[in-house]
Specification:
Number of domains: 1
Strand content: 25-35%
Mean pLDDT: 89
Shape: flat
Low-confidence stretches: none
Length: about 120
């Protein structure tokens, strides 16, 4: 079972990361702007959110190819926390073979973003 801290932990601006047999994950509290239907045209309000990132071993999130990452966003509430925990469990269970067949740090290189020259020429 994948552990997800209580809502209070995230409301205190703490992030939480973990690893479940090759599936790495990061839960990060934050805010985003959304349209405010009560505020008139063009009005926005801030909404508290919990962002969940999932990626395979062996590298940290920033050194993993973006094509291998998944991201979901939930409200920062008890319901959102429960939905995030359910998402993590379902993501792990849905692809057990993927998580168990992770490469060793010794057998692969970390992903690096393309240089401006590579982006301009269309190479990766």
């Amino acid at each position: 079972m994948i552990f997800v801290p209580l809502l209070h932990y995230f409301k205190n601006k703490n992030s939480f990361s973990g690893n479940e047999d090759g599936m790495r994950y990061l839960l990060t509290p934050g805010k985003r702007k959304v349209p405010d239907p009560e505020g008139g045209e063009g009005a926005e309000k801030e909404e508290s959110i919990l962002t969940v990132d999932v990626w395979p071993d062996p590298w940290a999130l920033e050194f993993t190819d973006p094509a291998l990452r998944r991201r979901e966003v939930y409200p920062l509430s008890d319901e959102g926390r429960a939905a995030a925990a359910k998402y993590l469990a379902e993501t792990y269970e849905a692809d057990l073979e993927r998580w168990k067949q992770r490469p060793s740090l010794l057998d692969c290189e970390p992903w690096t973003p393309p240089t401006p020259e590579e982006e301009a020429s269309g190479q990766s």
